[in-house]
């Protein structure tokens, strides 16, 4: 049976903060497939937001020109380093479903946890790489797994990983949440579970901006193929 | 009660065509709010896709730099005219929820129907403007309506408007579909209704690429504000 790319993003701001320093963008790849870009700007509030917008805008422009993911991450590092003289940093995660190669590609300059399950059920342990903007020749960590119905990826910003730290809880465990979500869980189900858990661990007052990106590749039986996208932004 | 920006996009390809010539992109506005960009490249298949990607990429890059919508549309025209010597055209619709001005802004270089309902229930009749790329000084048509819970906007590509033409049906009527959808309909409900109707009118074999973009602004009661985005891409 053919597969469906199913991507969901859920985000919330640091408690009592008007602006999230995390930015997430979805772009169409010119060769087929989609990419999701997650950037977390250093600090919080307005300055962090501008920074993460700058990074996602640069990466999305390059991806849309057909530039490969690793080169786009390197370019974003050099750009940020040049523009801000190595004074500010941002983390970057790129999650791509590349229909040319038939693979899911994860490219990261980030130290937060992430969850990657391959089609044969193996869990890839995510490498850690330093963030963008601080060093002149920073390289990303990358993983590539073949497309298949059991593939599942969860990327989070550090506000999720560090939730519950103030109250001394152990780090949030994405593997357990994924296992509890069950086989049929949609990307949106899993994103809501992860974000809900993180908010609860911070006793409903997020200590930092929180973002979660989830990819699943379920089978589908549509005859007329319909693509859907949606966005919900509650205003204060 | 506070409002929620609710946006949905539904798309399908021309029957037996691998690629859609329509591209839709969602971007975050640096001043607050979001914009949806819909471009329909002349023709169909690969060339039309590249063209519409080029237009949305240009417009999204400008919007993310804070450039106003009308100036972005003008720039996209001049860019396309310069790059392709006035030989190819593309239609462009930009739908923005601008939190700085508290308004919904619709900017169009397109001749297809669209549906705009203001908060006081008035229906704005959409103006027609020539597409991008053919003339050196093309300007967009624009409308601006205050944000409010009854606002509803439906934008479509010409594959939707022209559905049923082969079998001699009258043009698809967005006003009737919107009325039938009822008060509580979400953006996703309305997008599915419009696309479903258009596919049915083409007897399940779309004669052209079809895209629909819907905006509603319902009230919400969330205490922890969670933003959500999602994308579903069924593969053949």
What is the oligomeric state here? homodimer
**Poorly predicted runs of chain A:** none
Helix content of chain A: 25-40%
Average pLDDT rating of chain A:
95
**Spatial order of the strands forming the largest sheet of chain A:** 1-10-9-6-7
Largest sheet of chain A: 5 strands, antiparallel
Radius of gyration of chain A: 17 Å
Number of strands of chain A: 11
Cα(first) to Cα(last) distance of chain A is 43 Å
* Helical stretch tally of chain A: 5
Bulk shape of chain A: globular
What string, H for helix and E for strand, traces the elements of chain A in order?
A: EEEHHEEEEEEHHHEE
Structural class of chain A: alpha+beta
The chain pair with the largest interface is: A-B, 53 and 52 residues
Q: How large a portion of the residues of chain A is in β-strands, by DSSP E? A: 25-35%
